[in-house]
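Continuing the series of single-chain predictions for the mutant panel. This is the parent chain; the variants come on the following pages.
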Amino acid sequence: MALVGALRTFGAPAPLTLGVRPLMNTTELVISPDDGAIHLSGYSLALRGGLKKEAVRNALAALFRHEQAMGNGFEWLTFHNVTFGKQPCGLAACFKQGELTEVHFSVSLPTAKLEGGWPTREAIEEELAFVRSQLNAQLGTEPNDTSTVFPWGTVWSMFDPKGFQANSGVRYG
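Parent structure:
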């Protein structure tokens, strides 16, 4: 579960799991192999590098969950009710000086084993395998354990030992 490290850093309680509950009114995340644009079903705006923060927030208002300014020119918008490969997915968009630079996402698998509310290393590896299989299906290439570079940017899905979490996303440019 990417984004878990940030929650741990701030001492937040264990994340809620979406595992077995059916999701209602969700939108599927699909990444274009041609330009890396992230399409969300039912929304006309595709996430691309350089988009303005307010345009993204306004276009995806029904999915908007939280905004955080880091105090150094970076800001994050988080969204919910998203799926990736038909599994519940958290989505966070990163903006530098108000322009989209990258998108991170994490998937909640219904079979994920938790300890104290946090995913085990086994659960993290299962998430990574699932995300990589979906990226392979969408992009036609499988990211390795670091990243895969495309003409439009970079896609990654790897274990983050510092945050003890899956770390997946798209970086533009």
